[in-house]
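Appendix B, example 12.
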Amino acid sequence: MTNSSSDRPSEFALIAQLFAPLADAPGAFGLLDDAAVIAPRAGHELIVTTDAVVEGVHFLADDPPELIAKKALRVNVSDLAAKGAEPLGYLLALSLPAHLSLEWLTAFAEGLRQDQRTFAMSLLGGDTTATPGPLSIAITAFGHVPVGQMIRRRGARVGDSVFVSGTVGDSGAGLDLLRGPRDCSHAVRDFLVHRYHEPRPRVELGLALRGVANAGLDVSDGLLADLGHMADASGVRIEIEAQRLPLSAALQAMWGDDLQARIRAATAGDDYELVFTVAPSRADGVMRLARNSTSISEIGRVVKGAGVVLLDDNGRAISTLKGGYTHF
């Protein structure tokens, strides 16, 4: 991102030109007021989540602007999906370095516009500021869920089966490819890099898990790290079988299919798949919840104890150096 900002309009002109057209919800008032009005459906509760993405931490400086926009929005939509919430709208706070051009920002806004159509959302408001530091994007997303049906981290019960959607590790492998040359086919590279740039929030699956999942969350920091949060909140121990982790063919072509590859996949992060627990009596039925080619895999169980552990083929705990990504 080394474009000149000499063609960039003033703050309010920028908002009017690029972002007001995205604020098509009635309560957004075309971004002409200081706040928005949100009215959840009758019998529903409002679900609120927020995530920030920062250049050099969550995306690379030369990533395409439309894909940066999509990732910033989708990591928040994924949080809504994990709660069983239907997306509604979002707030956007941008801290913009001076070198970003109008062309770059136009492409960024187009990425948001495309995903607003995909997830039936509207921009509701936000803020823009200048910064001497890296680009920072903070989004607060809103969704609604029937009263009392939000899926929480706290709720995993001893005896539950543990499931995960899709495949794990792909985004981490995609980031590896972007950071340096690797020996792989164009098809493998394209698949894995796409998984890094454009996570796929499992909204439809999240809606189907209402009243079915006892606990759930999305995989952002790494499968083991995020399941550790669930185990701590629920006061249980979660055991995951390494051999049952779902790995894509592209990931296996890149990293292999041995135990070390599975450890990397379980700790890589940025997958934004849903991981959840259900009672044994629902284990067969939950496999029928997948829609639009979203696979679901049973990968472990909830037992008495504390923490999360990855097991080898012999049922022995595998020592890992980390559970996933941490900021501090």
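The longest strand covers residues 44-54. The two ends are 27 Å apart (CA to CA).
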